């Protein structure tokens, strides 16, 4: 099945469906005590603290509690993880006695393919038995459980359920939607995305007049925009809603596609994940491109030194595959240790050492010469991008820990500032790197919006750091961070574009011109970004390799990109015991702080403009960005 643009061309940044109500949904077990089991909104703290040990279902209102489906669901809470089982149980009221086990409610169950896998089939059979046992609590006399149908229901959930993310980006549960959403196929170069609406039933956000169904199943005719086939209704208006939105221009009759997996991964990983969950091999234009696209090439590029020049391509491929596996295992190991132990400093040192020195492999030797191999990630390798994300987070947490422990002038206050700088630098590198990839693959728009927003927040956090306040005590002026209205830029008009996007939506996006806004933004921040970048990367051996974070053309040149000469670098960590020397080395602190703030405002506004295209003017992203920008004080 597939969905196509029905009656007209669809421009970039337009809603293509109304808010779709789920057929079934369930919170993940870890959020049962903090979120409403019906609408998924967060509960007031006093409502759930007393229940944090006992498994139960909690609700934010009497309206939501009325959607409690059955006592059988409570029984399934004792079979963790239970979200798949509870979602399958909630689907059963939609089933007809004669329901096929291949397609239920218009959705493919994939039962035959899933049950052919030994591990998955064991999980499905166990889950079906647990659902059957739970249903016996409320079954009427002579009613029986159909084991095959229960297995099919669980397979339907495994195949069609999507992860529901809250306003903080956390996956808090799953939901199964009807064909208007579930029939939209996957592509690694999609032309649409989707957003969730998580809101109490009495606080549903308004929708524009254009939020109507503008896509139809292939081959289906419509009358006045209404399709002529009946689909099952959702769960009485409850549950998290979903809206599909265009991120490219879609011609009338063109298929609408979304991404089922992370697009910032190379082809083989994407295909592996899609097969593991959905049992299909992606054959989209990006996956079948030969040779691979530039984006897929750099996402898996690894530099291998000491490999004999006579090595054949199959041998080179083998070593690179082994290197990818070992580097992935290493990053996973360091990240797991960081999450378990909570030592961000150790995490940063290990990951940056891996980025700089690569991974020496004493076990793999080249057949000719017996040289030790050394593997380094291309700066745009998918694992490098993931590492930048981890480093930005770890440096931020390290800075927060230091600020909370030490507020005196100098000492660890300067170390905290250094940690904040590094966090902002990695966030900014992620933004510029993904924008570079976006120039070759426009479906990465959602990632670009998220990373520019994060970079803006990180830069504003740096500008508001209390470490700057300590400079005032040493005779330096303290920057007064004034309200947003006083920081309008006459060169790029980003603030106006962002506010127009919020007020008027897609018509104004087309009028402003996506390419035009992006071009003005990059031209405006050019010199400012380079000045701030030089400040951010002082003392960082890896980041100083990027002379200009917006210019990645040097990566394609036949030069040694692994030049980590540090003779002229300043290490901010050496200032921890020499605060006066550190201040003198820092120079014009007020100007650097001002520049960081101004760049942060630009990044956040640009991220907000892009987020408006991806999620619409009523999304939580728009409100979040406006809130982050509108503040007063130091």
UniProtKB/TrEMBL annotation:
Query: Which CDD domains did the record assign?
Result: SET_SMYD
Stored InterPro entries: SET_dom, SET_dom_sf
- Specify the domain of life of the species encoding this protein: Eukaryota
Query: Which Gene3D superfamilies would you find in this protein's record?
Result: 1.10.220.160, 6.10.140.2220, SET domain
Q: Where is the SET domain?
A: 176-260
Q: What is this protein called?
A: Protein SET DOMAIN GROUP 41 isoform X1
User: Which organism does this sequence originate in?
Assistant: Populus euphratica
